[in-house]
Amino acid sequence: MTNHTITLGDFELTAISDGIYVADGGAFFGVVPKVLWERKVKADALNRIGVSCNSVLVRTGKQTVLIETGIGNKLTEKQKKIWESQEKLLENLHAAGAAPEDIDIVINSHLHFDHCGWNTVYKNGVAVPTFPKAKYYAPEGEWKHGSLQLERDRVSYISDNYDPLIRSGQMQLLGGQAEIVPGISVMVYPGHTRNMWAVFIRSGGKTACYISDLIPTTWHLDVTWVMAYDLFPLECIESRKLYYLQAIPEQWLTIFTHDPHTPWAHLENVNGKISLKKE
Ligand SMILES: [Zn+2]
Fold first, then answer.
1. Span from the CA of 160 to the centroid of ligand 1 (angstroms)
2. Dist. CA 36 → ligand 1 center (Å)
3. Is the pTM for the entire model greater than 0.90?
4. Burial category of 28 from C-beta neighbours within 10 Å (exposed 0-12, middle 13-18, buried 19 and up)
5. Distance from residue 204's CA to the centre of ligand 1 (Å)
6. Which pLDDT tens digit goes with each residue over 33-50?
């Protein structure tokens, strides 16, 4: 996906992809029958679908903020083969006129490997910050959960993506709700994980929300179409309802973390069916 740029009040937002990777269709659609989800996206012979890792670059006029950092380039050869990761984030950032040194703030909605992979790169076998001048932020509960290395989801938590930054003091872990810089704040929407953040971008009376894996693509607008990855599917449903209750009447721009075609859209509710609003 090529970069998309819009203005939101005084801010400029650019959707930056780390590239398309392949994921199991069943993992993305959980209990939804394939005959239904295949109307939205076709699977390949191995039942895989192509999805994107979408980051957002926010230029506030004062700071340059990067929300999410994709899969990155630290996977093992075997993992790279499985995911077919393209490692495009830095290239696409460059196309948007931003060098790694230009990033002031990095925000990770949660610490799954496909959301914080470019936080660090290996230099002589040691994980060092990709964005040397940035302050990084992530949810504290995510880090605690990842550190437990539970059977269910330890593959998702790769400590080199964050532990070196925490040790050096470059990454700050925060609880619940916080304003990171004026106009950019975070709030927990539980379900995908217990402590995943949505990132709110507000300027000039307008709101955009990086809702992350709570609504990963435009195919997942139906409140019951939750992913098999979600740790708390019932809470996902409640969190989505809560989100729509505010996002639709207040006309928030919803940002989709894994959609390969549509990085963001406004939503509407027509007789209880949530859909994309025609712009
Ligand atoms: Zn996730």
1. 17
2. 23
3. yes
4. buried
5. 30
6. 999 999 999 999 999 999
